[in-house]
Amino acid sequence: MRVGVTLVVAALLAATPANAAVLYSITDLGTLGGTSSSASGINASGWVTGSSNLVGDTISHAFLYDGSKMKDLGALGSGESAGSAINNSGQVTGRSNSGDGKTEAFLYDGTKMAGLGTLGGSYSNGIGINDSGEVTGTSNIAGDNTEHAFLYDGTKMTDLNPLGGFASVGNGINASGQVTGGTTYSAGQRAFLFDGASTIDIGTLGGDFYTEGFAINASGQITGTSNIGTFDASGFPLYHAFLFDGSKMIDLGTLEGKTDSVGLAINDLGQIVGYSLPGSSQFFDAHAFIYDGTGIVDLNDLIDSQEGWLLNIGRGINDRGQIVGEGTRDGFHIRAFLLTPIPTGAVPEPAAWVMMIAGFGLTGVAMCRHNEGAVKLA
């Protein structure tokens, strides 16, 4: 993407000082023939997985984007599939209809999709994967009466059910096999950290109704969301994204004008992406954010507004700072996006631009506002 002079000036002037030189080019990853797609995970090479509608928009399949094109990963049966996470070897996990009303977690190894089974019920979903091919997620147990977090070690699926709740989910797993997710009790849900031998409750941001860990990096840092113990004017609890640093949970706050936030992914540098919205159910006005260690920034302020995007949800980030997620384009298409940082050296500092503007005799800059579209969480 080529960035014009006036656009760069406007973006730099609008950005916070700490992020003045951070801008992204944006790539529409396309679809598998339908009109909508969503990206959920990215690896170190910039390969992406997620799901996309097929022609006719009646069903969706998991995809693998290799940097140039989107590949249909198919399904275990004749129905739908969705990719959740990808490791640095290009292995993908997710879920797929496998027939007879059964939905099963899968592992795609680069050539084929294989089912991972269940914990005895008719449903499982692979949500996180590490570079060893270990998978975590959730599965119904026998009788389909509840779901438990699982760990798949390459040969078998083990029931984790951390903290002894009646239901649980595993969302993220790192290279050491540490798992984070949420465990449900009669009074609510708590985020956990499983280290392979024991499980701890990582705490809350002040509330006790709901917390959940969504991702964990190599250092054991976790991001997710927690209610903060206060409520909005309608009586709904407020939720904030957090960073768990190994000993305490840090409140990341929300974007300006928003009341809630969720952290969905964290890289090994501690950068976090997710979304912030004005109310827990108002996904149509969700904005994707990045947390860089000091505060959360709206990703929509760091891209070319003339591209026609509203970035709704950031779902994945690698150590190169590339970000994937979903947004609405031109007001109505829900599409998977890939953000790539523009090298700092490619963008002059604000002072240099001011001098250039003075030399050209320019008197002002303007930016177009985004047309906001509706988005539905996958």
What does this structure look like?
- The protein starts with a helix and ends in an 18-residue tail after the last helix.
- Strand 24 (287-291) and strand 25 form a beta hairpin.
- The strands form seven sheets. A four-stranded antiparallel β-sheet has the order 1-28-27-26, with no helix packed on it.
- It has helices at residues 5-14, 350-360; strands spanning 24-28, 33-42, 48-54, 60-65, 70-72, 81-86, 92-99, 102-108, 113-115, 120-129, 135-141, 147-152, 157-159, 167-173, 179-185, 188-194, 199-201, 211-216, 222-231, 237-244, 249-253, 260-266, 272-277, 287-291, 296-298, 309-317, 323-329, 333-341.
- It is globular and about 50 Å long.
- It has a single domain, classed as Neuraminidase (6 Propeller).
- It is mainly beta.
- The protein contains two helices and 28 strands.
Number of helical elements:
2
**SSE sequence, one letter per element:** HEEEEEEEEEEEEEEEEEEEEEEEEEEEEH
On the 0-100 scale, what is the average pLDDT? 86
Low-confidence stretches: 1-22, 348-378
Fraction of residues in helix: under 10%
Q: If you consult CATH, what is the topology?
A: Neuraminidase
Return the domain count.
1
Q: Structural class of the helix and strand makeup?
A: mainly beta
